[in-house]
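fwd from M.: "can u put these together and see what the complex looks like"

so here's what she sent:
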Amino acid sequence: MQFLMMVLSHPDRERDPIVPEEMAEMGEYNDALRKAGLLLSVAGLHPSATGARVDFQDGRTSVTDGPFTESKELVAGFWLLQAESREEVIAWARRVPFRNGRVEIRRVAEGSDTGYETAPPGTRARAGQAEPRDDEERSEK
Amino acid sequence: MRFMIIVRSDEEDERGCEPTEEDFLRMGRYNDELLKAGALLAMEGLRPSADGARITFGGETPVVTDGPFAEAKELIAGFWLIQARSRDEAIEWARRIPFTRGEVEVRPAFEWEDFGAAGTPEVRAMEERQRAALANAA
């Protein structure tokens, strides 16, 4: 089973400085994940001020630049893990070298799932007719 | 530059989705374009938050809370990790996703030049070794 372990952040907490000790601790943690054969991918994200959101509505798109101050929760980074069980991932999540903050664990949808239909990213009910996108607008925040 | 395109969830995603073969093929063609352009690094779709958990740090020990989590619009339903030459190029890829509704978020990933003093040679070597191991495993 694959799991996405996301670092959740709050718009007010996006600018926490990163200190060398934390970088080294995180490197050691990632090393442990890799040695255990769990680590598939990992990345940290810039604050949402450098990001953008793309909205889809009836085949039209609109772009809004960050920061996304109205959001209660933002993603600050992630690990993609291969694990035997949800419990195994939770045990690993507890070991993330954070003093404060929150991590969310979500199971990846796979073709072999039988509980309900699943899909790769976005291959979902919302994936309707793909229209040419020549009607684009861009809004500044 | 690496960018994460995050699919924001909604109530329908949280109930569990039932895509048709046509939906799969349409998204598959988009993913093929990413692949052909050498832009695709990783992608996954996520099961509803009812199957997930959150771990909160700050107390003596981390606290685990099982899903589902309220506020579907704040949740993540899937993601792509892509390689692009610029933020505009990443946004252009996001615009081409064959969605008719919903929202995705485009966020640049940290690179070493962002970290300054914290990215010591020792720390960098550690990550380079990890990335090499991941590439070999793939």
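replying to her w this: The CA atoms of residues 53 and 64 of chain A lie 5 Å apart.
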